Amino acid sequence: MSEKKKKTMFVDGPITPAFIAEAILKHSANLEIGAHDIFLGQVRADEIKEKKVISILYSAYEPMAEDVVYEIREAIFEKYPLTCLHIYHSLGNVKAGEISLFIFTSSKHRKAAIDACSELVERVKAEVPVWGREILEDETYIWKENKEIPQN
């Protein structure tokens, strides 16, 4: 494995548009980059048991999550010719309509950035110990389940 520095992935509260814009801006100085791909996970106002989701309260086992993300990062860097990649996930309360997951990949060519970003999203959702309580409009909650909708 390379000697890449472990980076924290957690952000308190929602990931703001300003945070995302700043991340993009920082990469404009690297003239070797030809492509970026970005995934933004937004909290939906789903209806559960006839009640609307108003937010998700995220928690994590942070030391383990950081270790898992480090291992995922290393595997993705070995598999794809990336310039960089970033993974950020919210902790705490994130309201419907706000961003809770931001994954950003950069490479010389688009295919690597796109493929790596897609794989990162799937691996983060499946492997990283982050949990969400969906807070309903009557202030009750339900533990969030990550369900994928089959594609046609």
Distance between the termini: 38 Å
CATH topological fold name of the domain at 10-42 and 61-129: Aldehyde Oxidoreductase, domain 3
Class based on secondary structure composition and strand pairing: alpha+beta
Tell me the helix content.
25-40%
What integer value in Å does the Rg equal? 16 Å
Global shape: elongated
Give me the CATH architecture of the domain at 10-42 and 61-129, please. Answer: Alpha-Beta Complex
How much β-strand is present in the residues?
35-45%
What is the overall number of helices?
3
Q: Could you state the order of secondary-structure elements as H and E?
A: EHEEEHEEHEE
* CATH H level, superfamily name of the domain at 10-42 and 61-129: Molybdopterin biosynthesis MoaE subunit
Tally of strands: 8
Q: Quick one: biggest sheet?
A: 8 strands, mixed
**Poorly predicted segments:** none
Could you report the average pLDDT, rounded to the nearest whole number?
91
The CATH first-level class of the domain at 10-42 and 61-129 comes to: Alpha Beta
